[in-house]
Amino acid sequence: MPDEAVKKEIEILSKKELDRTIKRLASQILEKIPNISSLLLVGIPTRGVYLSKFLSKYLEELSGQPVENGCLDPTFHRDDLAKIGTRIAQVTNLPSSVDDREVVLIDDVIYTGRTIKAALEALNSWGRARRITLLAMVDRGHREVPIQPDFCGRVVPTSKDETIDLRLNEIDGEEGIFLCKK
Question: Fewer Cβ neighbours under 10 Å: the N or C end of the chain?
Fold first, then answer.
């Protein structure tokens, strides 16, 4: 038998549990930011952008008011490009100014915190928000900078040789959150 690395997966959240978690996070946002008209959801590519759209939909259902959302790619603000490699940056698209807004940055998985650090730096070039909070679907630990999510779907301690994959139908053809081991 060849000595190949076998990738093993453990489902952490099913499609149904993922949907329920997104709805819970939307409720938590409304509790913390009751003035929905000042709210701006900002997704970090790739899956954070999709999560932002889902959250916007649920927040509108709960509040009866539309919620603006956009995309912010922090690639050029990263301090670790040599380590993680470069990728094609996505276009930053914010529907309005961030000045005096309640901004919720949204990412799928928080790991070292460096993506969020870069996103905060990138967001500053778009204006001065009243407050910036962070939503991460999964917190897997191993922080290198002192950044923690204000809203978190699930905390999943991992080892450095494990990864967390959020899969969404629009991108991956399936939904759920998976712990992947090499």
Answer: N
